[in-house]
Design goal:
The protein is elongated, with a radius of gyration of 19 Å. Helix 1 packs antiparallel against helix 2 and helix 4 packs antiparallel against helix 5 (111-146). By secondary structure, it is an all-alpha fold. The protein is 78% helix and 0% strand.
Length: 153
């Protein structure tokens, strides 16, 4: 499971960093933002593979009372929900980046610039919330598969 923890950090961390940058009104630059989003996207794809392999291995892990697959009977649905929530988060973050790049996120204190900044912050915060919901869902399945007497996964 340490691989998934690292991938979780590489998926959620860049999205949270972008929210922090937006709150601090720090411009990471178009290239820096795209690097962070590409990192998050690659980590998500790798994480889906890791979780799918784990799902396949659950069937063979059991004790005299129960199998790990029985403890997480809905694992395929959880994995699908993780993938969909994460895709929504990434799509929203990439869309926010594209729109801010198109507008050039106007500098200044005029009302239009402030409104654009608020929309960017809202999109990035929503993307981060969706990403963390996806991550917590899979952490929950991990704990569901471990919290039993004598079953060590």
């Amino acid at each position: 499971m340490p691989v998934s923890l690292g991938l979780n950090a590489l998926f959620g961390g860049p999205l949270l960093a972008l929210v922090g940058f937006a709150v601090a009104d720090f411009d990471a630059g178009r290239r820096g933002t795209r690097v962070l989003l590409a990192l998050a996207t690659a980590a998500w794809a790798a994480n889906v593979v890791v979780y799918a392999v784990l799902g396949l291995q659950l069937q063979g892990i059991e004790n005299e009372l129960v199998s790990a697959a029985d403890l997480v009977a809905g694992y395929p649905a959880y994995l699908a929900a993780f993938a969909l929530l994460a895709v929504a988060a990434l799509a929203l973050a990439w869309r926010a980046e594209a729109q801010s790049a198109r507008r050039g996120l106007m500098e200044g204190q005029n009302a239009e610039a402030q409104d654009a900044h608020r929309r960017l912050l809202a999109r990035l915060a929503t993307a981060s919330i969706l990403a963390f919901a996806a991550l917590f869902l899979m952490r929950f399945t991990f704990y569901m598969s471990h919290l039993t007497l004598g079953l060590g996964v």
